[in-house]
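Standup notes, structure subgroup. Blocker cleared on the zinc ion input:
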Amino acid sequence: MADTAPKVAAEERRESLAAVDRKAEALAKQIKKSKHFIVFTGAGISTSAGIPDFRGPDGNWTLRAQGKPRTKHANTLQAIPTISHMALVELQNRGILKILVSQNCDGLHRRSGILPERIAELHGNSNREACNDCNKEYIRDFRAVSTYENGIHDHRTGRKCARCGGTLIDSIINFGEDLPKRDLDLAYQHAELADLCLVLGSSLTVTPACKIPTIPGERKGAKLAICNLQRTPVDDITDYRIFTETDILMAKLMEKLDLPVPPFILRRRLIVKVETQEEDRHKVEVTGVDSDGTPVTFLQSVRLEGSRRVARAEPYIIHVRDTVQPGSELRFDLEFMGHYNEPNLELAHLYNDSEEVLYLLEYDPQTGKWSTERQEIPQRAVEYIVLDP
Ligand SMILES: [Zn+2]
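Run returned:
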């Protein structure tokens, strides 16, 4: 990844709402016609969530080039995904959006509900770390980024792999480093297939990521749309050039497509495993997972009603010295990281002989309430779950 930053931020332009409306109408028609629609996002999509961009007037790189300190900004873990983020989730869920290619590492796309197989995170994700030896990934509800005390190429986070004991490294791509192969390949593959690419909130100046939209942009028959406040180096090959905030365009676009922008719901998945060791001795384990089975750390503690012990670190294991049989109820008190002020959740687990049960936990930050749903464990998820040290 390579880049330079100018001292004077490029001028920002905002078109009239009427002009945006007309362009949104045309773009909506193009989306309906398209067979392979892809979206490419940059920092501009997260600014309305309180996360600063890089090259705007108060952007991180602009301030650095001017020798000024970075502005205070919202903690990305507490940021609420924007209208643009949520519109993309809806487009994904309806099968309209085939792949999301993002340069952002704030983790907001994944938290908003974009599935792991539907996103190429070209510059990494500050909530994701992986084992240097066995490549096992871990998603954390905290910043899983190296302190870079030993230089910007030392990505060690200080944690160890729960599977093999290997060193965990963050997924952030710093200047001068290669982009992750899986994500770059996925992005190129879909860019080749795309008949419509929409760029949201990127000035397209960071190579090689910025080359992705130019693939459909330069191909005959494919269309390129760019929504960004500043000009980009590829404006001359775009079919739709929209100067406005991404939220304004996406709200209009969803209206034209007659689709809702869903509210942000924080979704967590939890596996409860009850292993019978002797008639009255059981090992109960509680594990956070992603939709693809990747372990996710989002709990602070797990308490079992009637048990004195509180599990405060992964793996969350509680030993039960009582008879647990079909029909027995285990009541857990789950304590979360609380970035969205989510309160503790009491989970009633009805034991029915199946060793492992998956729960979908949904938290609505608007109402401050949790809801839970017992689900089937997809076969593929089980094989990934290896948390015993
Ligand atoms: Zn490992």
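Discussed briefly. The chain is about 20% helix and 30% strand.
Next: hand off to the docking folks.
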